[in-house]
Amino acid sequence: MNLDQTKPLQEFKEQIHPHYLLPLWERKVKLVPGSHCVPAHWPYSVVKPLLDKAATLINKKDADRRVLVMENPSLRSSSFIAQSLFAGQQIILPGEIAPSHRHSPNAFRFIVEGEGAYTSIDGIQMMMRPGDFIVTPNWAWHDHGNLGDQPVVWMDGLDTPFTSLFGAHFRENYPEDTYPVTHTSHEPDAASKSFLFPFIEMAKSLQDLVGTTPNLAHAYKLRYTDPVTQNDPLTTVSAFMQFLPDEFVGQSYRSTENTVFNVFQGSCVLEVGGQRYYLSKHDVFVVPSWETYRFESCENTYLFSFTDRAAQQTLGFWREEFLA
Ligand code: GTQ
Questions:
Q1: What count of Cα atoms within 13 Å lies in the side-chain half-sphere of residue 217?
Q2: Taking the CB of residue 63, how many other CB atoms lie within 10 A of it?
Q3: For ligand 1, is residue 68 a contact (CB within 6 Å)?
Q4: Nearest CA to ligand 1 atom 10
């Protein structure tokens, strides 16, 4: 650009500034895939003692939900693990109840350890076991309780960043602690099958695949789908369980989805951003959008993950790339 043009343009920019206008031709925002989130690791060896300590410091009633929120290191004060996802770790002790409420964000639980807890969704009470995936669609009344004799820990995932983005976050407490129970499911049945996805069924489906040619990046990976509609069980969130056989060495992969992994059984190495992370049982790891990553298993490993793929595919944004 010649100098004669620079000065009038500079003056023009100053002229439009007070009117909250800016020249698109000087836009500085980067318009490339990826986000300013960073890959991050929450080892269970760090999180679990802190959950136990939280359980001594605050009772469930006062806490409403006794949750340690996993916040992306580059999104301090957001309470989000990635730009589009919320994730927390919740602990509930024997005899405790997490009172009933409902909210606009969609939610789910992935049970990490402990037996005897239930979640109720609009009066359908579902018993939860380790490895189970349970969805709570938006605006459904939900409360949790622990009827057993051991602490129960699960990971909560929510799409709260979407309701924040749209300014559409509503929330209500139910007038009683628990919403009246109309049905109890110990196993998936007609009432619970669109909410409760048991680990044993997912593990069986995955084991049926072992022996077939594994995917080069993911080994054996299945997506949770609603048994009636075949859609993702929530409108924004997709969830997956994958099985990495012992000694699996995966190729590199990236996609536009933000992904939160939770190691259910086994252990593996995750290579991302030029670094190698050793993931142990129950560790959580976030891989932000368009970061290249790959897995190497250290033993037979079951890996749960959730992402914003459902939303991205509905909106037409989702892309993936397998790299050699
Ligand atoms: O258990 O209902 O981690 O409403 C965040 C918000 C858990 C829950 C969270 C919630 C819940």
A1: 13
A2: 17
A3: no
A4: 65
Give per-residue pLDDT as tens, 248-275.
Answer: 999 999 999 999 999 999 999 999 999 9
Q: What pLDDT does 315 receive? A: 98
**SS3 label, residue 166:** helix
Q: Which domains does the chain have, with CATH numbers?
A: 40-323 (2.60.120.10)
Given ligand 1 and candidates 64, 66, 67, which is best to mutate, with the most ligand atoms within 8 Å of its CB? 67
Distance 169 CA to ligand 1 centre (A): 14
Query: What is the per-residue pLDDT across 44-99, written as a single tens digit (0 to 9) for each?
Result: 999 999 999 999 999 877 788 999 999 999 999 999 999 999 999 999 999 999 99
Across 74-122, where does the E strand assignment appear? 86-92, 97-103, 107-113, 117-121
Q: Are 103 and 172 in contact (CB under 8 A)?
A: yes
Choice from 158, 163, 164, 260 to test ligand 1 binding pocket (greatest atom count within 8 A of CB) = 158
Quote the pTM value.
Answer: 0.96
For 8-51, give the secondary structure using H, E and C.
Answer: HHHHHHHHHHHHCCCCHHHCCCCCCCCCCCCCEEECHHHHHHHH
CB 156 less than 6 A from any atom of ligand 1: yes
For residue 158 and ligand 1, the question of a CB distance below 6 A is answered with yes
